[in-house]
Design goal:
Elements (H helix, E strand, L loop, with lengths): L4 E6 L3 H16 L3 E2 L11 E6 L6 H18 L4 E6 H5 L4 H4 L5 E3 L7 H11 L3 E3 L20 E5 L1 E2 L10 H5 L3 E2 L2 H13 L4 E5 L15 H9 L7 E5 L8 H9 L6 E3 L7 H6 L6 H14 L4 E8 L6 H14 L3 E6 L17 H24 L5 E6 L7 H4 L1 E5 L5 E5 L10 E5 L2 E2 L4 E3 L5 E3 L2 H9 L36
Parallel strand pairs: 1-2, 1-3, 3-4, 4-5, 5-6, 7-10, 10-11, 12-13, 13-14, 17-20
Antiparallel strand pairs: 8-9, 15-16, 15-18, 16-17, 18-21, 19-20
Amino acid sequence: MSAKTYEVRTYGCQMNVHDSERLSGLLEDAGYVRAPEGTAEGDADVVVFNTCAVRENADNKLYGNLGRLAPMKTKRPGMQIAVGGCLAQKDRDTIVKRAPWVDVVFGTHNIGKLPVLLERARVQEEAQVEIAESLEAFPSTLPTRRESAYAAWVSISVGCNNTCTFCIVPALRGKEKDRRPGDILAEVEALVGEGVSEITLLGQNVNAYGSDMGDREAFSKLLRACGQIEGLERVRFTSPHPRDFTDDVIAAMAETPNVMHQLHMPLQSGSDTVLKAMRRSYRQERFLGIIEKVRAAMPDAAISTDIIVGFPGETEEDFEQTMHVVREARFANAFTFQYSKRPGTPAATMDGQIPKEVVQARYERLVALQEKISWDENKKQVGRVLEVMVAEGEGRKDDATRRLSGRAPDNRLVHFTKPDEDVRPGDVVTVEITYAAPHHLLAEGPSKAVRRTRAGDAWEKRNAAPAEKPKGVMLGLPRIGAPAPTPAPAAGPGCGCD
């Protein structure tokens, strides 16, 4: 009898992507195997939806997907469907009512229960709904099926203590809970031992790390400790909050060689009036002051951001303040969002909801400005010689152009001419930048050096697995760090919540 197959469909931020790595690990630990790539919809034995609740139409998207699976499940009696994540935490009582063919509903705090709940649903032949109100076990203690051999997420905290009026995450993820530094560093060291050379420290409000332990400098200490781990080449983190971004963190970034000079710092709005309505605990002057300090310590730093356009009550003058900050800060790129009501948030019922056409017009002006700045900032990279870590699947046109793609230390995407020698994801290639576009750099000449790495060895080892082993359905893992902005008003690195 062949093993049961599974598929995980992931929506939302890096937290959900990392949780899905845990869900995959749990299922494989329980004997399931990932459905082969290209498996038709509904052909996996278990389909897991790891949901997001930060967009107004998140539930419509989920129920539309569930509806498509209903007739397939009728034809395949042994098939099971599970719904987890933020929407499950929020709508625990309605999912099974609206989609009675769902077998399991679980929340953000008890992802470790999924295999048990699936088995219980099978034996008892009825839906299992189990939502924990607080964290049962820190996610990093669970088995994991990581999507990359050379780069990894490392969760340092879960939950958030902020009360931003546009964000529902604290209600669904709970108050901030920090991991012990020793546990984090042990995980990083274990990953490096497996060949990982780049890690991204992950938290809903990553630089508030330590508030749970009463140590305001815990995050900067953690960055410096990562600098002592031999074989760890690149350290990134996402997403910080301006309120908690202190001088000791800037110093740690500048003084720790393997901490990359890349920063994703959510602005949300440049207007003090709007920031107050959003319940953001900083103002324009404070934000620009942080950017100035970062640039003074690291002139080469690439800074990206999140911006919401059309928050309730935003006037034309408020919007112009956002445009002013964008001109002053000169972000390498920005995730720009049209405000969308998050059900259950204070902002959803605020007066002054702005007409769609006004929001759209402002959004287009902001995107045009940021596009020009991104291009101007990228042009400054032409002529520079950069070490690029080769990535897997970042360049959609690589085969046609005979190029490879990867990330520079500051996280800019670089497409470069394929070297004569064999190069693997995780290896490092030294190239000279010859051309810049708004969202990528190009190195058209021959590579100056190729460094084969333990990370490349790890990728090669993983991909040398027996051919008959299912390759798997990808979770849609976002690139490590902040990718290029897109004109679509979809969720970004922190779902616009940081």
